[in-house]
Amino acid sequence: MQISVHPVAPEQRRPRPADDQLVFGRIFSDHMFRMDYQEGAWQNPRVIPYGPLELDPAAMVLHYGQGIFEGLKAYRCADGRIHLFRPLKNMERFNRSVRRMCMPEVDAQLHLEAIEALVRLDVEWIPRSVGASLYIRPTMIASEPHLGVRPAAEYIHYIITGPVGAYYPEGFNPIKIYVSDQYVRAVRGGVGEAKTMANYAASLFAAELAKKKGYTQVLWLDAVERRYVEEVGTMNIFFRLKDELVTPPLSGSILPGVTRESVIDLAKHWGIAVNERPVTIDEVIDGIASGDLKEIFGTGTAAVISPVGEVFYKEKSYVVQDGSVGEWSRRFYDEIVGIQYGEKEDPFGWIHQVTL
Ligand SMILES: *Cc1c(COP(=O)(O)O)cnc(C)c1O
User: What is the C-alpha to C-alpha distance for residues 27 and 34, in angstroms, rounded to an integer?
Assistant: First the structure.
């Protein structure tokens, strides 16, 4: 399928805000990608001016939540090259989410071409300062107007992009997290491993509780025993226990992060022992007390690495080491960001350069 390109008129191009004015998720570039699934096939892939979607009020996504998304970034290197980081991982995960939600798959190569066409046309929207980037949000929604629970027969796949600022403009900042032992995010056998909209709606209540108590993110426990650590906010979670890197296994209720996989690959490459095994909250609290737990950090595309400085559990607060950024957190951050911006060697072939 050929992607048709319909650029906005030059006088309708909007100015891009200065890099230090960028707020995550508020500003969108001039163009979007869209294609429609009708009569059993994807039709009319096209790059068009950014603008509202017209949806029937009975569109199934608005009632039954049949919708999924992805998140990745385009990075501008000092020499002007544009990098994507392991984009096919996102395209594959998109299709895994799609299958779990009974939606029609999108050809991974076409999906990548769509992103490249979009990035090429809106290349001026990619910020120039290191740490800032162009966030890319592929989405699929059920658009068929129909009331009644079953998979829809019509869908829209669209991609929007927008410039985002550096996650740590004032330097690497450890976050405070709140262990939710009452509300859960996902249960094994449910949809926790899909990047589907319902998971984020399900997370809001606990996140608001945490915020009211002064905590930035929720540490999610497993839904059955409320004992095993699963994720932190919308990030995967890692622990440095003595000199081993430990992260919960992908058991079905955890989102398989691209950053998670990259941290595991890097650790192995560096000769760090990695253990994907269940971690109980008691082990975390005991480890903080004994000093065996040296670092906690979250991983995800938005922040790359998010060090955790404090954990709140059952009405008590525990400071991890002295609340400062750990050595491994910094090392993973520097390496991954260095590879993304072309400043460090890429021995894994993670970088996909966009042809401009
Ligand atoms: C997207 C996401 C992640 C991180 O995935 P990355 O591919 O590393 O960005 C982790 N947990 C949840 C719940 C997510 O939605």
Answer: 19
In terms of domains, do 124 and 224 share one? no
- Cβ(255) to ligand 1 under 6 A? yes
Measured from the CB, is residue 195 less than 6 Å from ligand 1?
yes
- Dump pLDDT digits (tens) for 242-284: 999 999 999 999 999 999 999 999 999 999 999 999 999 999 9
* Residue 170 counted as domain residue: no
Nearest CA to ligand 1 atom 15: 234
Give yes or no for residue 229 CB within 6 A of ligand 1: no
Longest CA span, the chain: 63
Nearest Cα residue to atom 5 of ligand 1: 257
Give me ligand 1 centre to Cα 134, in Å.
Answer: 17
Reduced to 3 states (helix: H, G, I; strand: E, B; else coil), residue 72 is strand
Its domain, for residue 229, covers 175-337
Do 134 and 17 contact (CB within 8 A), yes or no? no
- Tell me what pLDDT residue 220 has: 98
Phi, psi torsion values for 113, nearest 5 degrees = -60, -40
pLDDT reading at 170 higher than 80: no
| H-state helical runs in the chain | 61-64, 87-100, 108-121, 197-212, 258-269, 281-290, 327-340
Cβ(194) to ligand 1 under 6 A? no
Give yes or no: residues 137 and 243 share one domain: no
Confidence of residue 23 (pLDDT cuts 50, 70, 90): confident
Q: Counting beta carbons within 10 angstroms of the beta carbon of residue 13, is it exposed (0 to 12), middle (13 to 18) or buried (19 or more)?
A: middle
